[in-house]
Amino acid sequence: MKNTALIVGASGISGNNLAQELLNQNWTTYGITRSSDVDLKGLYNVKADLLDKAALETALAEIKPTHVFFTAWMRKDTEAKNIKVNAALVRNVLDVLAPKQSVKHVALVTGLKHYLGPFDAYAQEGFLPETPVRTEHPRLAVDNFYYAQEDELFAAAKRDGFTWSVHRAHTMIGLAVGNLMNMGSTLAAYATLCKETGKPFTWPGSEAQWKGISDVTDARLLAKQFVWAATTPEAANQAFNTANGDVFRWEWLWKEIADYFKVDYKGYAPGTPDLETLMQDDAALWQQIAEKYNLAETNLNRVASPWHTDLDLGRPIEVMTDMSKSRKLGFTAYQDTRDSFFDLFDTLKAKHIIPA
Ligand SMILES: NC(=O)c1ccc[n+]([C@@H]2O[C@H](COP(=O)([O-])OP(=O)(O)OC[C@H]3O[C@@H](n4cnc5c(N)ncnc54)[C@H](OP(=O)(O)O)[C@@H]3O)[C@@H](O)[C@H]2O)c1
What we know:
Layout: E1 4-8, H1 13-24, E2 28-33, E3 44-47, H2 53-59, E4 67-70, H3 79-97, E5 105-111, H4 113-116, H5 145-160, E6 163-169, E7 172-173, H6 183-197, E8 201-202, H7 207-211, E9 213-214, E10 217-218, H8 219-231, E11 238-242, E12 248-249, H9 250-261, E13 265-266, H10 275-278, H11 283-293, H12 306-313, H13 324-328, H14 337-350
Parallel strand pairs: 1-2, 1-4, 2-3, 4-5, 5-6, 6-11, 7-10, 8-13
Antiparallel strand pairs: 9-12
Helix pairs in contact: 1-8, 3-5
NADP nicotinamide-adenine-dinucleotide phosphate binds next to helix 1, strand 2 and strand 5.
């Protein structure tokens, strides 16, 4: 049977980059979104609210996927609500697909909150893991929507007989507009605002993150790992970490990003406000910049998510990701982190999201 992919959340940072990878590899590819249009040649974009099972049944009536890639999530104000809603997203999709008996593999992206704790307890005392984070770390003794999504996946796999993979990504760098968490475009927007006002590109995070070793996950590398795991028998029924495979320190990458945007920079200094505070009054200025440079997005909130970048850059420890498990099984893709950021910035310019 020819492979047919269904990407759940095809407009997001992980879903959109995966769609591009699958199309490059000539897969028949469907992508569900709630309301966004996905502008990718060859992608069949279907729309449904995953919380509305009847609508989902209608939207998927004619589709028989062999491979499902689950990249959707919703953010609620407590972890209890995150668990309820995000478990339902996975359950509803897999329940609707079950009678078709077409699904061979389901891949789910989660992230390092698996090791660092949910938003409510993120990287706080008592939840700080050993680093590099390794896949064999036991679950933390705290509720987490990633665990709830995994459990829905495992239960459906047992019921329906498909194989599964889980992909625990670090901070994702890649193209997506209007999505919930995007550090790359947040830093691009912040640097653009600094350039326009003449203010320095100021490090808003902790000393541990400034000086320590870090890594990130290029969404294009996650896409490659997704496809590898979905098509490699040895990778079945495994959870993997997903990161670029190199490491960096913000104390030099911050300067390189400042140089890219031709702005002055300021490094770690105690008492510096976080990025959400530094950008809190910038919505009107972004609109002016958008009009001046004829940008595609006048709404700063659709380009930048400083609350999320603050969570990462404010962590009290250095955090990096052990990639041994998938490497040992043959996934050897590697992504240069400088290229992750600078390719993205070039793309944001080409798409008129930031000034050229
Ligand atoms: N972004 C990161 O840096 C990062 C890092 C590590 C791990 N993760 C994890 O990776 C997973 C995927 O995150 P992401 O950042 O790729 O997501 P994202 O960019 O915010 O995209 C979410 C996608 O889900 C869709 N969606 C949301 N609610 C829906 C609903 N009710 N019905 C139908 N579609 C719905 C959205 O469609 P619309 O556009 O139509 O709303 C969008 O396509 C999450 O668990 C996240 O925690 C993310």
